[in-house]
Amino acid sequence: MGGTPSKNVNLTGEVAPSHFDLHRMVGRGTFGLVDWWSLGVCLFELLWNRLPSVGNTEEKLRDDIMTLPITIPSQSHGAVSNECTAAILGLLERDPKKRLGCRTGFSSIDEIQSHRWFSQFDWEKLQAKQLDPPFVPNPGGDNFEQFIACDFYSGDANLEKKKPEMRQLESDFTVFDFERTSRRSYYPLNESLPALS
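Predicted structure:
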């Protein structure tokens, strides 16, 4: 699972402006470094139900991200561990050379995995999808939207009706599904996609 310069991958695709890092905002490219910034933004939002930087417009948001300090909400002291706070602030470091996951000169999962907050985490079990989720929604509970789950699972029903390139995409991303599959690699088929006309 370790990162090397030759395996540097940008996982973000298109990200919301609130998840941009400084390099992307000033047009310098991302080099995969925005992935760790975006992870920090997501963790911040999951824990504190708000973004670390807030702006009414994209320009104001950009200014806030580039200039305002990241502050941890005061009500979280004691509720969130120092290790967690340090990891999030490390991911939200403005200087990519000092950002957690980027200090080696390239994007590296090894640095993330060895951080105090993640060090006891079983990364092999995560990759093998053998970990139990910390929360499983109760189908009979108020927080369960049954029609969403039905729509999600019915997605494969019409797989044969999809265009070949869409079937290939469905197959390629099976390895990333939340359910454990027998596939262990992203490239099991090594088939080329048909040319789009």
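Summary: Confidence is low (pLDDT under 50) at residues 1-15, 190-194.
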